[in-house]
Specification:
Chain lengths: 388, 95
Amino acid sequence: MSATVQTLEAMERPPVSMGSRLEGELLEVSMGPQHPSTHGVFRMNVALDGEIVRKLKPVFGYLHRNHEKIGENTSYLGSMPYTDRLDYFCSMTNNWAYALSVEKLAGIQVPERAEYLRIILAELTRLQNHASLLGFLLNDMGAWGTPLMYAFREREKILDLFESLSGSRMMCDYMRFGGCRVDASDDWLVGAKKIVDRFPKFLDEFEELILGNEIVIGRTQNVGKVSAELAINAGVTGPMLRACGVNYDLRKVDGYGYYPHFKFRIPLGEHGDTYDRLMMRALEMRESVSILQQAFAQIQPGPVLNPKVKIRAFRPPIGEAYGRIEGPKGELGFYLISDGGPNPYRYRVRPPSFINLTILEDMCLGHTVADVMVILGSVDIVMGEVDR
Amino acid sequence: MIGSGILKGMAVTARNFVGSYFEKDRLITVQYPEERNPLPENYRNFPFLIYDGDDPHAGLRCVACKICEKECPPQCIYIVKSDDKKPDYMGKPQL
């Protein structure tokens, strides 16, 4: 009366043999969720052959907060502070993407000064996000502390600007449907211009610090290569796509906001490796500085909020809208379906860092464990946005 | 020459280290508990209710309009209106 019961463990993990290696077996390692380099609670199940990655399975959802369902149960305005918590590094661009989709849904016009303020804030967000990303990437490579602290020194100045404008350093909650919540004073604009004018000096120094460094070049060049076909097929956007040489930037493609009034260039990579992704951030910061200087020169006084919009008891007409912007990490979109009520019927976020993460295994295969951290760092993920 | 990039980076760190003694731009830390940066005027602090006089219960200025209850995104504010129409601290009748 004895029956062989196959245990769950054996079913889940069939014995793997490599064939080519003598008595070789893959070693399964769980990296994360408590790992200093995974940028939050992100886990990777890695199958290793010696030190070489043969399989990689990302596991996430540890930070799931039910963002989309909460968005269906709160009013349109009530979701605005929640969007700050998606990607807590760049709350201003999250606000803008959400406000843009609601404005599309309800057909709201935005005053000119508000559009300029939005561009200024979005580009400041891009500066601080890219600066701190480069710092974190170097941190993952083992340049422990120094580049990160230099980057955070600059980020701090920009966060102080956000704080004096919106009242909070990271959870800004600044945009409203049809404009911005408060107007920026002239003193604020002068202070912001001063910080932006000094930013290229920091960039020169930072590029001298990292980009010529032989260790950085050795760790990043030819690591984590992505072909342009794979990147397009996987829906990768943002600096990761442009590092592969695909000229796709929503600021040019969609021309949302007042971006068509600005002169700027889109930096493009060639190889699609980690070094190109790193360079892409460094070059984009230069372009952001030039956009900001144009915006400070062009901004005119005027109203910042469309007075026709009833923010309380806001009920957009029946319909659906998809608003998307070029966030620092890629295409950030909000898809809203309205049934005419005070709450959206469906509220969907298209997070850039989650979709950029889908090609992680393709990038990591064949590289060592130490390279996995560098590749993951170059994807630029924030777990608040990946898990939502 | 290999290694020149590293030496250049070391020069940057040295410049920052020495500069932190002379340039205000490079030394931005404050000795926190003793020294604090002033908060900006727009800073969003903890919400609190305003009252007149010394007794917060008697002089409460909240008129229970319930806008905060409607607006609160996590819906954590819950307000019960009191029925008595006694005059407030300033002597005005409550509506």
